[in-house]
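Illustration: Lytic murein transglycosylase.
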Amino acid sequence: MRLLPLALVASLLPATVFAQCGGSFSGFVKDLKREAVAAGHSSATAKAFFNGVKHDPKVLRADRAQGVFQKPFIEFTRHLISQNRVDRGRSMAKKHDATFDRIEATYGINRGVLLAFWAFETDYGSFQGDFNTLNSLVTLAHDCRRPELFRPQIFAALELYETGNFDPKRTTGAWAGEIGMVQMLPRDILENGVDGDGDGKVSLKTSPQDALMSGAKMLSNLGWKPGQPWLQEVTIPKGLDLSKTGPSQKYSVSNWANMGVKPRSGSLASGSMQASLLLPQGHKGPAFLAYPNFDVYFEWNQSFTYVLTAAYFATRLEGANVYNAGNADQGLSGKQMKQLQQKLQARGHDVGKVDGILGSKTRIAVQAEQLRLGLPADAWPTPALLGKL
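Result:
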């Protein structure tokens, strides 16, 4: 039977069935079963799939305890990137050279890009998570923080179950529902799963070929441009107009060159290519030009610090030098960052959730206040800025 798209089903049934989160967990699961049947799945299939699903409080604790993202870029990179990880990445590149050759020929994704994700997500497949995936997805969908993200993944897992590629009782992964060596959500597996080793199955947990080919296809479908760079370390001149920096502002590479931005090694990309100048810890710290492919990273993960670290690590695995850490101004503690976000909110800025994490909205607000107060507008919050606010 051809299944109706969930968006169409939503238009035919009462909105409360699809907008609901919270309430009793058992009632929530009953609604999920009704939604599955309405989308064309048999009652027996829905019953078997959801049989025994449990609310997992450990998932919610993990969701609320992502303190690592409060670390500033330099500390975060040193936390994630060790010489051992660099050496293992280069070893894995040699071991799976034929697979990476296929990926580069088919999808145009550089091996360093996939190796970096493989390293950060599961330490090259050595730890893929031991949370029951269905329990994680249903728990997070029931939670009213991000149901729009996780509810569709439940039904993608149901489709995988019907094809024999998901076991509600035994499939495990990360606390947020990602599965396999490069940690893909069920919907991404449905749309981008590739049988890279030719055994007739897509096995992202046990087959590096399947996992890497699938990850490459997903990046390609997200808009990765073959043959183009993604990130490059640069140096910036004194007196640069710092208000032009940040991921939301893009200028041609030739414009950046005219402003005095220079590559730390090699040469800049084509002069007509658009790029953003990123100063993760202000104008005294590391500096990078981010090219259009860098934006694709945010389709994989929304954390600016994680994305920049993954993109930088990919360049390291392809031969780039360790970045120049510079002498960045002192940043804020988690507690101070929350105080800053509250003060920014009081001035009318949208910083999202007050969570002590320097995300993109907080950076934009910081830069605006730095301009207003006559401080270097590099979007890096300091105790001096907090004091002036």
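Reading the tokens back as a structure: The mean pLDDT is 92.
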